[in-house]
Design a protein that fits this description.
With 369 residues, this protein is of the alpha/beta class. The chain is built from 13 helices and 10 strands. Strands 1-2-4-3-5-6-9-10 form an 8-stranded mixed sheet, sandwiched between helices. Strands 7-8 form a two-stranded antiparallel ribbon. Helix 2 packs across helix 4 and helix 8 crosses helix 9. GO terms for molecular function: hydrolase activity. Belongs to the AB hydrolase superfamily. Epoxide hydrolase family. It holds the Pfam family Abhydrolase_1.
């Protein structure tokens, strides 16, 4: 995406426009990026505060740097932007216990992280009307859950690629059974949740091969490194060329950051695929809270945007059918012609959708100031 007045240049590795920081939240180290509009020349007052706070949440296999096209754009809208590496990724911790990766645990951590970074903490967040929460892939799932656990602290919520699914009552359904009966496009998760992937893909060389392939590279005869049917095709790792979605410096950054976690293992990241039962058990409490709120099916209370990637093999459009029924306010839906990596393949259209959505959210907030 070329730079224009409306779309500032994307972030580069170690970009001076963002600060790279760490914080320990509930015993876990989180690495995160933060950026905010510069104060007006000559100093400012309360009126010069950011128009709000955005929390951006990435997925797998990814980093805070996933949002490199979106962070400068959101800052240009007058927003403070906080972008963490989730547990298991980048410079954040990779705990052994699976509860550290659950929706309940991570949403609580991220709320406390934002409170620690916003001057005035919870009081200022409440004054702003809450946090604008956005996510992609696993980050989309976390964003939706953030809105369920903390509706009064969520000003708005948006997800790119990841549709909303409601917490489930009844009996726990194991991943294998879910794949066989309902979600064949999640078959790859059976491999990722087992021991084979983390045993095979470790160290900088293999991580580079894997990331290149996942981010669009192919072998000389069009061989893929990853399919939703099988997961990683280990025999194709050495065949991968260069990713069409990342330049050389970006790929070097990704490899160093991913391989720098947990001694060159990707164990922490794939722990997210091992959390289905933990999430199910913990969300019994959430279901009780939702019932007490008396909203019926309309359990997502804040304004919401869903950006569907039409060529996403892992999260195909069919998964999003009928999700509108869960939203108290009208769900804004937009489409981009892209694969799972819509943030990078269609950054202008994604940013336009977010800007259109936030236009109403920010106008309402500005009117209250």
């Amino acid at each position: 995406m070329s730079s224009t007045p409306d779309f500032p240049p994307k972030l580069t590795p170690h970009d001076p426009r963002v600060l790279s920081k760490t914080a320990t939240i509930n015993g876990k180290k989180y690495h995160y990026l933060i950026s905010a509009p510069p104060p007006p020349t000559g100093g400012g007052d309360a009126a010069s505060q950011p128009r709000g706070t955005v929390l951006l949440i990435h997925g797998w296999p990814d980093l805070s740097f996933a949002w490199r096209y979106q962070v400068p754009f959101l800052v240009s809208l007058g927003l403070r932007v906080i972008v963490p590496d989730l547990p298991g990724f980048g410079r954040s911790d990779s705990p052994q216990e699976l509860t550290a990766y659950s929706y309940k645990s991570v949403t609580r951590d991220l709320l406390e992280l934002v409170e620690s970074e916003v001057p005035g903490g919870r009081q200022q967040i409440e004054k702003e009307g809450g946090i604008i929460v956005g996510g992609h892939d696993w980050g989309g799932a976390v964003a939706w859950r953030f809105a369920l656990w903390f509706p009064d602290l969520t000003r708005a919520v948006f997800s790119v690629c990841t549709p909303f699914w409601a917490p489930r009552a009844g009996e726990f359904v194991p991943l294998k059974q879910m794949v066989e009966k309902v979600l064949p496009n999640f078959r790859y998760q059976l491999q990722l949740s087992g021991p084979e992937f983390e045993a095979q893909v470790k160290g900088e060389e293999k991580i580079r091969q894997f990331l290149s392939g996942v981010y669009g590279a192919k072998g000389p005869n069009g061989e893929p490194v990853f399919t939703t049917e099988k997961g990683c095709l280990f025999e194709n790792l050495p065949k991968m060329g260069k990713s069409p979605l990342l330049d050389e410096k970006e790929m070097d950054y990704y490899v160093k950051e991913v391989a720098g976690n947990d001694g060159g293992s990707m164990r922490g990241g794939v722990n997210w695929y091992r959390t289905s039962q933990v999430n199910f058990e913990e969300e019994r409490e959430l279901l009780k809270q939702l019932e007490k709120r008396g909203k019926g099916e309309k359990i997502v209370e804040p304004p919401a945007l869903f950006v569907q990637a039409t060529k996403d093999a892992a999260l195909p459009p069919a998964m999003a059918e009928g999700m509108e029924r869960f939203f108290e306010k009208k769900l804004m839906r937009r489409e981009v012609e892209a694969s799972h990596w819509a943030l990078w393949e269609q950054p202008v259209k994604v940013n336009q959708a977010i800007a259109e959505f936030l236009g109403g959210v920010l106008a309402e907030g500005d009117a209250k100031l």
